[in-house]
Amino acid sequence: MPIAPQNTDELFQALQENDRRPYGRTRTVTAEELVDAAEQFEDPAALIHALLELQDAYTYGSEPRKSPVVFARLLTLFDEQPDAFDERLRHQLFWRFKWVAHALRQLPEIPLTSLRQWLQEMRDRYEKADLGLQPYYGQAYQLAAHVGEDTALAYELWTGRIRTRLSDCEACETCQRARHHLRAGDDEGALRAFEPVLAGKESCKEEPARSASYALLPLLRTGRADRARELHLTGYRACRRNPSMAEEVGRHLEFCALTGNEARGLELLAENRNLFDEVDSPLDQYGFLTGVEVLLQRVELLGHGELPTAGYTGRTWTVAELRAEVRGRADDLAARFDARNGTAFHTDRRRARLERAPLVDSLELTLRPRALDDVAQAAEVAAPTVRAATAVPDDLAELILRARALDEEGHPDAQACWERLRTLVAARDYAHPDDPAVGSLVRLRADLLAEEANRAGNKDEYAESAALHEEAAALYDDAGEPGHAAVSRACALLATAEIPAAQDADEAESKDAELAAVHAAMVRLHEETPGQAPFLEARLLRLRVTALALRLQASGDKEQVATVFAEVDLLHAFATRHDIAGQIAGALLLRASTHALSGDLPTAVAEIDALLDRLRAHGPAWHLPRTLGLRGRFQFGLRDAQAAYDDLAEGLRLAAEWPADTVDTSRLHSDLAEACMHLGRPDEALRHLTRSAEVALRRGSRVDAFCTYNNAAQLSLDLGRIEDCIALLDSLLTEPDVTSGELDDRLIAQLRLTRARALHAGEDLKAATAEFVALAAESAAWDDDPGSHAMIAAETAVLLGESGEFDRARDVADQALAAHAREARYERLSSSLRELARLQAQQQGADGLPGALAFLADAGRVADEARAAGYEAHGRALDPALAYEYGRVNAYAGEYEDALTALDKALGLLGEPGRDDAAGEWAECVRLAGAVEGIYLERPAPALTRVDAAISHLTALGHTEETESLTSLAARLRDDQ
User: Fold this and answer.
1) What is the C-alpha to C-alpha distance for residues 387 and 394, in angstroms, rounded to an integer?
2) C-alpha–C-alpha distance, residues 420 and 430, integer Å
3) CA 946, CA 931: separation in Å to the nearest integer?
4) Mean pLDDT, the chain, integer
């Protein structure tokens, strides 16, 4: 708190501001400072309010030791100055007796006799104040349940009484009743009791998140896995990182462990690492740590005890180490509670949770399912993955020769041989074979560098690929292998040309010139390196064709097509003469691609069909998946989505027969997602998008993976799967290269933007607005992309408007307009400004009209600019939409004549719809004009004439759906006549 309040008005304002902060250390420290400030004023009410805020911070900040101390001060004030407590403050005081009872239960050092004495104090106070005792009996039941006593009588005494104003909220009591059924082993009864809360009919600060955590396992045990999955996603988001809901987080970790989602459990544990240090409540610690141990025990049982995991601060942890630490702490807590209570209840309950077997083998919880093996691979970044499916020779010389033979053929199994050799050569005791057939160690190191360079190129890491190829070429020179050196240098040339350049107006022209120079350099290399082995010469020819094909793709210049075909013919003739099957297939594939680039898709399909026939008859079979993938993309161009789907699905099936890096299955899955969208199968498309992203992630193509994941998140949001969308993005945003800032900041911003939109769609306006405000502030610094800032700021302003913060909305809207002036975003700005006007008029009525009209005036200037620039809107036309909004805003403000004038203008701009036109906007404009004229201006006759004419016109055109609201209005207008 920078400056202490100087008077009670400032104190109350500071208390209100602190109340808006999330629970945690900042809010608690501020509340403590405000109590110190309140003590300086001779106003007991100020001190009472400050103490209430402090107890609230301690209670929901998981600091139960301090809550009773604050309440003791409040109780003393009440006893000494009862008149300082108005009815609301008095209600707060008696309500918080329950908070103290709850706090004392959480502290094992508090004797059981003290807990019972406090309940007696609560009862005496309630009776003296003539308050009903149902809340007291509720606390007595909770103590009995905590101790592990027979709760039957306590439950009857509590539930048999009528609720009072001081009873726990209905949602919390519902949760307690349901947990009573759970303790009795009655899953069905518990779920029936939980239902009002889980259905959203009852809620509070902790609910339905608390009930959801307890309902997860009963739902699984009763065969309702889909509902359990849904509640896990919604419930976890509501309690994550919250110290006062640490036990609930532990139950979500346990749920992951018992559903085959151990990897997600470790991910959630990392996200909640703050709970190891921020939870001051021993009972909450006990619940959290038991859930953590269930997860870690399962991970260790599956053989992954050495995986790194998040734990207590100050050191690094493996799963096994953290499990041992957690087990010791949780055992001690359970023993302390049982010693205090005189039972073995907590030890027994803990043992039962740890002995519980998985309830399902596998339950897909999110759009990003991951296994522990995936986590292990991510943890072992330096260790290459060796494919167990490919047998490699044990003899070193034989292994080297085998790798080269397979590489010459282009066979996928060469990869396993190179991986094995890379491991052997890196060993300190490596001894190179003294065998003329094998050649020198320098030659082998060159081979390994060339293979590594190719893998980098496959991941689009072109700069690294070029550097590695140049290094390999130098080693090949040293080894006396000029043919290999020439191929490596040609590869370096091509990789360098594919490094993305800074965007500028002449980018296409410069890329064209660069690729032409690359091709010329390759031709010189070819001419200057005579006597090459045929397979090396074929590779040079293939690289020459590829350079020209990329040039054609970049320029779109049809005059280059003949040159490409000429080079393809050279490659095909050479490969045929020397019977190099892989290069024959490559030449035919490039020929088909060139036909497609020239716009001749039918010929491209015919060429690729001939290639498929050849591959099926003569091989190489590993070319089939890629060829089928290309044919599928050709089918997109021919607008045959089903044929595209069939080709791509067949390609994916065949790709599974080869090592993982042989075929870019990420691309196949991505293309299948597109086919599914064309075929109206969005759920299947979503599955392919997530699989595409995961494959890209495993291959190391992280930017591609995150872009695809964002597409998947957006699709899930479009499908209404809001929690799926948020869970996926939450998972991505906790990735190490995201949190460390290594990933592109614009890509991270896009992920956050999609998440903010999902939060908004999920009606979490507070969280969505906070994220949008942060993004708007960050994007303001994007001097190279003011258009994106304009759109983000415009969307942010609308959310601020929804929250009723129109002054802040005005400021952010002005930022959007300033950015729009630098890079126009007509449609987004116009839409947002109109929506802000509507919100302000709707929320504030006549008082908000000046502000609303100012927003509309800005929208009018944007529409004028768009008209002058010849811009055509993709959605609603800007001018009639603006006129309609003038009508609606004036109607909200009670300016009905102005509203009707504006609506008539909108109708004139729209014009009457025809048979093939969209009629919804026109019908809505007629409806609102009719309502304003007939109901608010009390002129039902002309209004009815207007509406009836519209109904007749729409009906004649077949737009019957659009007449429904008009028909309802007409009936009302007739009743009013």
Assistant:
1) 15
2) 13
3) 10
4) 93
| CB proximity list for 820: less than 8 A, separation 6 or greater | 786, 787, 790, 826, 829, 862
- Rg, Å, the chain Cα set: 35
| DSSP class per residue in 704-737 | HHHHHHHHHHHHHHHTT-HHHHHHHHHHHHTSHH
Confidence at residue 735, expressed as pLDDT on a 0 to 100 scale: 86
- Residues 732 and 738: beta-carbon distance below 8 Å: yes
Cα separation, 883 vs 540, whole angstroms: 65
> Torsions phi, psi of 313, nearest 5?
-70, 160
Torsion from C-alpha of 535, 538, 543, 546, nearest 10 degrees: -130
In tens, the pLDDT along 849-907 reads 999 999 999 999 999 999 999 999 998 999 999 999 999 999 999 999 999 999 999 99
**Which residue do the tokens 């209100």 mark?**
16
Identify the three-state secondary structure at position 72. helix
Instruction: Name the DSSP letter for residue 162.
Output: P
Q: Which two tokens stand for residue 535?
A: 């397979």
Closest of 106, 107, 147 to residue 341, by C-alpha: 147
pLDDT score, position 185: 95
Whole-number Å distance between alpha carbons of 932 and 383: 72
309 bridge partner residues = 317
> Residue 73's closest CA among 103, 110, 107, 47?
47
What pTM did the predictor assign?
Answer: 0.80
Closest CA to 608 of 639, 622, 629, 580: 629
Contact criterion met (CB below 8 Å) for 59 and 67: yes
Q: What single letter denotes the amino acid at residue 944?
A: L
406 CB neighbour count, 10 Å cutoff: 18
- For the beta carbon of residue 344, count every other beta carbon within 10 angstroms: 14
Evaluate whether 691 touches 364 at the Cβ level (below 8 Å).
Answer: no
Average pLDDT estimate for 665-669? 94
User: How does pLDDT run across 179-236, given as a tens digit for each residue?
Assistant: 999 999 999 999 999 999 999 899 898 999 999 999 999 999 999 999 999 999 999 9
Give Cα 116 distance to the centre of its chain.
48
Interval 66-95 mean pLDDT? 96
What percent of the chain clears pLDDT 90, i.e. is strictly above it? Answer: 86
3-state SS track over 200-242: CCCCCCCCCHHHHHHHHHHHHHCCCHHHHHHHHHHHHHHHCCC
Q: Which of 729, 685, 723, 725 is nearest to 706 (CA)?
A: 729
Phi/psi of residue 599, nearest 5 degrees: 95, 5
218, 265, 464 from 253: Cα distances, Å: 15, 5, 40
Q: Which two tokens stand for residue 220?
A: 């699984």
* 3-state SS class at 519: helix
Distance of alpha carbon 259 from alpha carbon 225, whole angstroms: 10
For 655, residues 6+ apart whose C-beta sits below 8 A from its C-beta are 625, 662, 663, 665, 668
SS3 letters for 602-654? HHHHHHHHHHHHHHHHHCCHHHHHHHHHHHHHHHHHCCCHHHHHHHHHHHHHH
With CA atoms as reference, report the closest residue to 873 among 922, 912, 824. Answer: 824
**Do 697 and 459 contact (CB within 8 A), yes or no?**
no
CB atoms within 10 A of CB 190: 25
As a 3-state breakdown, the chain gives helix, strand, coil percent values, each rounded to 5, of 75, 0, 25
DSSP string, 871-912: ---SSS-HHHHHHHHHHHHHHHTT-HHHHHHHHHHHHHHH--
pLDDT one-digit tens code per residue, 909-918: 999 888 877 7
Per cent of the chain over pLDDT 70 is 97
Is residue 694 a contact partner of residue 368, using CB atoms and an 8 Å limit? yes
Rounded average pLDDT over 643-669: 93
Number of alpha carbons in the 13 Å side-chain half-sphere of residue 543:
28
CA 292 to chain centre: 24
Distance, CA of 739 to CA of 745 (rounded, Å): 11
